[in-house]
Design goal:
By secondary structure, the chain is mainly alpha-helical. It has three domains: 203 residues, HUPs (Rossmann fold, 3-Layer(aba) Sandwich); 62 residues, no CATH class; 87 residues, Orthogonal Bundle (Tyrosyl-Transfer RNA Synthetase), CATH 1.10.240.10. α15 crosses α17. The structure holds tryptophan (TRP) and iron/sulfur cluster. Tryptophan binds next to β1, α8 and β4.
Amino acid sequence: MYAQRVLSGMRPTGSLHLGHYHGVLKNWIDLQNQHPCLFFVADWHALTTTYDDPQGIVSATWDMVIDWLAAGVDPQRATLFIQSQVPEHAELHLLLSMLTPLSWLERVPTYKDQQEKLENKDLSTYGFLGYPLLQAADILIYRADQVPVGEDQVPHIEFSREIARRFNHLYGREADFEERAQLAISRLGAKNARIYEDCRKRFQQQGELAALERARDLLAGAASLSQSDRERLHGYLEGSGKTILVEPGALLTAASRMPGLDGQKMSKSYANTITLREDAVSVSQKVRRMPTDPARVRRNDVGNPEKCPVWQLHQVYSDADCQSWVQQGCRSAGIGCLECKQPVIDGILKEQAPMRERAQPYLDDPARVRSIIAEGNDKARHLAAETMHDVRSAMGLNYR
Ligand code: TRP
Ligand code: SF4
């Protein structure tokens, strides 16, 4: 199999917190070691809900990119870019809008949910309705195979698949498909071309699945093929037209159980967060002020860790020895709450230390962040341009 392309985006919400790290970024970091990855800042998506006060978007974007780098997202491995700096996303969004039934957008569950949740805002806008379509354009323009997202975003990935399918159905038949496919075959080299043709025949005439597999592997390994030739030959293999837009899969990120300072899930809207690069004094202050089992009024009152949000953090940050020290000490009033909190503070600071270290050079010299993003924007634009070329010609918009 050729390496599946992974893409994901995040709206610029400013400084990220430890919940983002445990829930999303760790996953990105795993993926970047296994796949070609594209990670981008969805600044246009942020605009769908902050259009009345967009001034913070740019600085939130830079802060967030520094957090990515701090967490260990590696620009040598993954391509990092900003959505609005690749205007092709907007072009694809527009072209897809021509074939997107309004009813498909209206029935995306996040539409009504979010509108009700943010009821103090007027979200009866065109941009907000089109949010999932812009997201579909983000994904389809890179022919992403896998999109790591949380559960709430799964309907958007499904929507993207439906749009890709509709597009391919409408435009997948190039007039000169046969010729282009033959030309692409000749680019495989004599030996592989022969194998491909043989497999294609065996699959189409005898339905041999092994032959289909073999040919797919061959295409996957054919480094000389452009992405569009590869798609063409995949389509030719199965006797269908060309797959112009690839249907993406959702790579479900396990829900983060990262607890916040009050025992609820860590989230900016609950004001219970610790940011990725929060300074040490503030971290220890916040943990020291955390509520504990209300039964422990005095030092010698016994407590129950199950009723204490600090225990939840021990489950993230402490080893088995420390955890049993907490269990026994709390239930016997053998330890005090401040004493109990110290290993949590130490654990958080230890986790943050390498992040702070990685962020420092970027804080000292913001030009380094700018140049990582400039390079990523270029790479992304290049990939997007390839897809747009195919999309335009499929839609009959090839002026040359
Ligand atoms: N809607 C996503 C979110 O809120 C952000 C996003 C925009 C995205 N475009 C994307 C995620 C493309 C994955 C792929 O989290
Ligand atoms: Fe919570 Fe620890 Fe205090 Fe028990 S000892 S109530 S677990 S902080």
